[in-house]
Amino acid sequence: MAIFSHPSFDQHEQVMFVHDQASGLKAIIAVHDTTLGPAVGGCRMWPYANEEEALNDVLRLSRGMTYKNALAGLEFGGGKSVIIGDPKSDKSEALFRAFGRAVHSLGGRYYSAEDVGITTGDIMIAHQETPYMAGLEGKSGDPSPYTALGTFLGIKAAIKHQRGSDSLEGVKVAVQGLGHVGYYLCEHLHKAGAKLVVCDLNPEQLDRAATELQAEIVDLDAIYHQDVDVYAPCALGATINDHTIPQLKATIVAGCANNQLAEPRHGEALRDLGILYAPDYVINAGGIINVSFERDYDANAAEAKVRNIYDTLLQIFRQADESGKTTAVVADEMARAIITAAHR
Ligand code: NAD
């Protein structure tokens, strides 16, 4: 398995492979760039089909955290970790303690937090072995409401860019995934007068959305071709791909999921079809912004900073229009400029 020449390596500072025989822990911790501060990024637990898949995921996510933290104006670098295993059956106290010790061995170069498959409770166990954990209970807590707020404001910015007004009254939004973030997002959208079309694997969440938010429910595969204004991916990555792009009727793609574009060329495909894409790591930065206030937690200050996502996205949309580049490329360039300036 190639590491230094891996297509997603992108000059990572450090990649650590962790094995703890007693607990069965197999993890990879990736520290992409610490120019702006310690690398901060969550830990994902997933039953990866093989080690290559886990490595690719952690490298892509870690690099994304560098850019996300830079554009959110945080003094954090980018990093991420993955635990190879099934979150439903492979969790134990020993496993998360071993993970905590591995994070501790990096001496504060990397702070972990919750991500897909990981709960605040798991992070609290790891925290018994190291102070280098973020998103702790009793501090900044669950990041999802802030991620949802940022995503909601990002959708408003996209509508503003296309229509000149950011009113969501009557705007139709297809939300894929009613999990921690997706449901809060739907609540914001409903309150703002948007019409919701939703899908999820969980029938209880669907019933709740239909009853509380008058959401229309559609099958999982039908979400892409709904006659809506906005497609909001809030479940899986890579849902913008060769198969789904031709189905889209939405003129905006704006949701909270990480790594929405299967490949960079799919950003170009969206642009060529006149579909406005809100780069994932910009629109979904609300949670990490909230975590950045953890030390002396202040919810109002955190919310005020999350609200900046609206202006950052408007700036990216304008620059993309002016340059003819994709919004994803413009966002990457802006993030790299911040890091390069800090280097100097
Ligand atoms: P979650 O696990 O709580 O929710 C995901 C939801 O998607 C679940 O309800 C699940 O049933 C549903 N789902 C799974 N497969 C689906 C499919 N094929 N079609 C439709 N629905 C499906 O996760 P979350 O915390 O809400 O995060 C959602 C996305 O946002 C993830 O990609 C995550 O990486 C990203 N994200 C989350 C945060 C955060 O603060 N939680 C921050 C940044 C990015």
From TrEMBL:
Q: Give the matching PANTHER family.
A: LEUCINE DEHYDROGENASE, VALINE DEHYDROGENASE
Extract the Pfam families matched here. Answer: ELFV_dehydrog, ELFV_dehydrog_N
Xref: SUPFAM superfamilies: Aminoacid dehydrogenase-like, N-terminal domain, NAD(P)-binding Rossmann-fold domains
The identity of this protein, by name, is Glu/Leu/Phe/Val dehydrogenase dimerization domain-containing protein
Q: Record's PROSITE patterns?
A: GLFV_DEHYDROGENASE (PS00074)
The family line of this record is: Belongs to the Glu/Leu/Phe/Val dehydrogenases family.
Keywords from the named record: NAD, Oxidoreductase
Q: Where is the Glutamate/phenylalanine/leucine/valine/L-tryptophan dehydrogenase C-terminal domain?
A: 141-344
Native organism? Ferrimonas gelatinilytica
Q: What does this protein do?
A: Catalyzes the reversible oxidative deamination of glutamate to alpha-ketoglutarate and ammonia.
